[in-house]
Amino acid sequence: AVAPVYYSSSSSADSPPITDDGRIINLDHGDPTMYEKFWKQTGDRTTVVISGWQSISYFSDPSNVCWFLEGALEREIIRLHEIVGNAVTDDRYIIVGTGSTQLFQAALYALSLPEGAEPVSVVSALPYYSFYLNVIDYMKSGLYKWAGDAESFNKEEPYIELITSPNNPDGFMRQPKVNRSMGMLIHDFAYYWPQYAPITRAADHDLMLFTISKSSGHAGVRIGWALVKDKEVAKKMTKFIELSSIGVSKDSQLRAAKILQAISDSTELAGDSEISKNFFEFSYNIMADRWKQLREAVKQSELFSLPEFPSAYCKFSNRSFRTQPAFAWLRCRGGIEDCNDFLQNHKILTRGGRHFGVSPEYVRVSMLAGDDNFHLFLNRLSMLWP
Ligand code: PMP
């Protein structure tokens, strides 16, 4: 047996090590609670007060293609993308959704072929974000059907390819895989933010999805947005949201606007006494710290391996770094066939490779949990033996 190595967050170096009380550590979902500390110290600057007479109408701006989009949110989305430099917003329609999950469905609806045609094939390269498949299976739509791995799609027919970059679950930056002419692409940029990946260029695609869930960590506000080049596609996406929920909560949009504003302010005014911390510095440091500690624990256990990412220069933060994804794509070695089962026996809940279309040797582990759970996970991982 080896002496346990206790991991604790750098911000609490003086606090006593956490004792492992044998609890279940749930790292299955990517629930981003770790940014709570940042938001607590912003105090009233991120408090939103909405009076009884406000946000009453279904409409925000009837002249806008997305007639339920709040002007304040639209402004803050554009401002944040300009500051971060991760996406082009010029000549784009902005569509707001109840999370990017609703926008993903709206995009499938908008890109599908006219009624009467065969359902269009939807593909994504392995390992793919498991929820895409779950949603498509659940919907049983007559408009589209799941066709699996993009790499093996070889039909001469229209298709929709989902490109998640950085990818959930494995963290790699991605390009389209199907090289055919009849493709319609949906770029999911949930994680293309400077705490997770170097911002090397402003993404400039026809249909791009973003979400507040992973950028600020406010998954519970349920706000996502799409940047869409084509007016007809933008109109159809708006129609889908009208049919499914007659718009998107204004209260949530106003809260999201306030949060995005606070991020932009913290980035532009860092050093100001009022705005003590730059959000992306804070979140980058947490991710860097966690990845460093995870790699150490994995090395010590000799039972697992992790992907290696190339280093790239981030134009936003002016430094080079390796992607530090929101999920760790852990591979069990040493003859363990089902990594999920193995970890579950040690009361660590993850999501097994089969959900993402690949071998059960792999598991996806959330890197976004609260400090205690994350550090207990590291302690337990470093002490595991086959
Ligand atoms: N896309 C990807 C790749 C994700 O990982 C997630 C969240 N797990 C989403 C979209 C959905 O995010 P939202 O909370 O905005 O619906």
UniProtKB/TrEMBL annotation:
Keywords: Aminotransferase, Membrane, Pyridoxal phosphate, Transferase, Transmembrane, Transmembrane helix
A GO molecular function held by the record: transaminase activity
Residue intervals of the Alliinase C-terminal domain: 25-383
Gene Ontology terms: biological process: amino acid metabolic process
Reported cofactor(s): pyridoxal 5'-phosphate
Family: Belongs to the alliinase family.
Descriptive protein name: Alliinase C-terminal domain-containing protein
Organism field: Nepenthes gracilis
Residues of the full protein shown: 96 to 481 of 481
